[in-house]
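Protein: Riboflavin synthase
Species: Shewanella polaris
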Amino acid sequence: MFTGIVQATCEIVSIHHDTGLNTFEIAMTPELTQGLVTGASVANNGVCLTVTKILNDKVFFDIMEETLAVTNLGNSQIGDKVNIERSLTFGTEIGGHILSGHVHTQATVKAVSHTDEHYNIELQVAPQWMNYIFYKGFVGINGCSLTVGKVSDNGFLLHLIPETLKLTNLSHYKVGSKINIEIDSQTQVIVDTVERILAKKQLG
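Structure follows.
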């Protein structure tokens, strides 16, 4: 499990293509690799991946075809920066909201508004996912826990503060880019439960 508080952006230094999977080599800082072991879970752009090897602060992850197909890791290239978060540990402060690292869908960047006063990103997602996205609600964006600023029929707006832009890769995304989305699990459970109850009442 993760908190959605990105610890660093780290560079993809190599991608090895094999049958059924790709192996990513990510250059991390000594602080991030301290205590990290093979088999541990690390969020890369919000995707929970298992560490397969650690070599001189280079961390390796095997990524299956399904994960490559449904997340933006499938479009990643050598030199790209990914948002990194180590797994949640007991006793640490939770500043965001609980994320599983299981990406539900990808959003398309519809617009970017960057002025002296603000930095906004407008995202578009498939209509079925908008049932779980609410004004002032939480959503995981490339592994970042963010608050929804505005909602439309097929998308939503994010207001990004300078600290978020500094610590994450969100400022690198342009119109047409794909961003990983994890909806809030509690919101999903509530919405799905209410829909089932209403459907039963209509049938009854």
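Remarks: The domain at 105-187 is CATH 2.40.30.20 (Elongation Factor Tu (Ef-tu); domain 3).
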